[in-house]
């Protein structure tokens, strides 16, 4: 017999990889399986051109998905560092994500809604590689 927790864990991990593979391959269908495009958003730190100060921008996941419109030619790698599931309804995934130019750490918050896990918030830091 399979445990419910094991199934939920696998579904959460699968959702995180839908995001990663969708982004790497410019696959909008995979991204729509990963992101809650009705309610989700991305939070990112950027530097304001006007003030030169750091600000936190919020971008709807539907818009963010559109940034990935073609497959990358580079090698991208991702590893899940941790998964925390609460009441089989909410999850937090910490994703370590490398491209040739940038190292990302993503926190992906997910809700299980209508029996599907979807990312509702992606918050990350990006560090340029030397």
Q: Could you please describe the fold and organization of this structure?
A:
The chain is of the alpha+beta class. The protein has helices at 4-25, 28-34, 61-65; strands at 41-47, 54-60, 77-86, 90-98, 102-113, 116-128. It is 26% helix and 45% strand. β3 (77-86) and β4 form a beta hairpin. α1 packs antiparallel against α2. The longest helix is centred in the first third of the chain and has 22 residues, at 4-25.
Order of helices and strands: HHEEHEEEE
Range of strand content: 35-45%
- Helix vs. strand class: alpha+beta
Count of alpha/pi helices: 3
The main pleated sheet reads as: 6 strands, mixed
Uncertain segments are none
> Taking all residues together, what is the mean pLDDT?
92
Helix fraction by DSSP (H/I, runs of at least 4)? 25-40%
Q: Write out the strand line-up for the largest beta sheet, numbering strands in chain order.
A: 2-1-6-5-4-3
Query: Cα distance, first to last residue?
Result: 49 Å
Task: Give the tags.
globular; 130 residues; alpha+beta
Short description:
By secondary structure, the chain is of the alpha+beta class.
Present the secondary structure layout:
Elements: H1 4-25, H2 28-34, E1 41-47, E2 54-60, H3 61-65, E3 77-86, E4 90-98, E5 102-113, E6 116-128
Parallel strand pairs: 1-6
Antiparallel strand pairs: 1-2, 3-4, 4-5, 5-6
